[in-house]
Amino acid sequence: MNKLSAPRGTFDILPEQAAKRAHVDRVAAELLEGAGYGRIETPSFEATEVFSRGVGEATDIVQKEMYSFHDDGGRSLTLRPEGTAPVCRAYVEHGMHKLPLPVRLYYLSSFFRAERPQAGRYRQFWQLGIEALGSDEPEVDAETIVLLATILRRLGVAAVRLRLSSLGSPDVRAAYREDLGNYLREHAGRLAPAVRERIELNPLRAFDSSDPVTRQVMAGAPVLLERLGGEDAAHFAEVRGLLERAGVVYEIDPTLVRGLDYYTRTLFEFTSDALGAQSGVGGGGRYDGLVEQLGGVPTPGIGWAAGIERILMAAGEMPIEVRPPDVYLAFEGSPSNAFETLTSAREAGLAAQMELAGRSLKGQQKQAERLGARYFAVVEGDRVRLRDLRAGTEETVARAALVDRLVAV
Ligand code: ATP
Ligand code: MG
Questions:
Q1: Is pLDDT of 337 > 90?
Q2: Whose CA is nearest to atom 18 of ligand 1?
Q3: Pairing of strands 45-47, 76-79
Q4: How is the beta sheet containing 393-398 ordered, strand by strand?
């Protein structure tokens, strides 16, 4: 028979890895909940339209990275490739615009993209993300960026860099797109084929190309950041000022381009020089047109998503918080007394384990030591020989008194 294995581009999360992820979850939840963010979990799949409308037809994600399938009713569904569109769909569906604004939500969920697997790039991966809906104040932009910077710092993510830009409002961006398209068509002969093919669909992506000749061409391309109108420029200046006040170091990168079609104004990306080619740790931006695009009332919004696997790769050692047993219940012969005591120990809130593998008494103590148990309790009828593995002392107690004795420690 063929050996079964996890599908290409996916992985199992075994307990040691799960403990590291739990730490990431705790650090993020503590900061975000303290900042007024509530957790949200949307379904793992959505109507395909949520993404074609919410991420944008012209994006890499919708063009080539979605796992889509049809259900029995012939409806097209898609495994979620990202979290912003589903959260905005939920915002509209539940009438959250009636809640006190801004509505702030966060998630830590898995996402699916049909990509070529490589280090730091998977077909099912995890993202931590936040969305703040209902305010276009620059403080919200700055706050979201500072929150991600703080989480990365608290998790010990190494060599982090923040790049920042602004896309302005949709009309400025549309006019710019036109000009950039003209520029690219003028230089089409020197562009990489993949870039040339997408001049009409998504000209901004040309800034992402790694082809050296294309990069030369792009060095002379018109720059959107230089064309921001008065309000957009003032908004961007305020965001920058607030980040400086918060001590967040950033680089302005006018060539920054990101996945979503509906990004407006602030755009940012965190990278880590500790990672290889897949250096993006997390990024996001403002998307003031998205909720309306999904059928809601016009609602400004901003958010980011950060990749958990890349955080773990760039973070080095992570504290693993496993609770060692308070007591390991050992026995010879019948397990029933030990089992009864196990149950009452757990009822009393103790971390308790009992022998389940038929080891000799000596083997049972070894196992208790391996687990880092504080007490090794040999249940002998109604008496217990209680060994304090830390102090190396032993006493005999009545089995009925054991739990109280341990709770009092
Ligand atoms: P990239 O340029 O690496 O493809 P992206 O722009 O597609 O990233 P986003 O959609 O902004 O990434 O997702 C936010 C973060 O999620 C990324 O910065 C990265 O850390 C992580 N991420 C994205 N795609 C994957 C993937 N296929 N596997 C693992 N992590 C991913
Ligand atoms: Mg990508």
A1: yes
A2: 282
A3: antiparallel
A4: 352-354, 327-331, 375-380, 383-388, 393-398
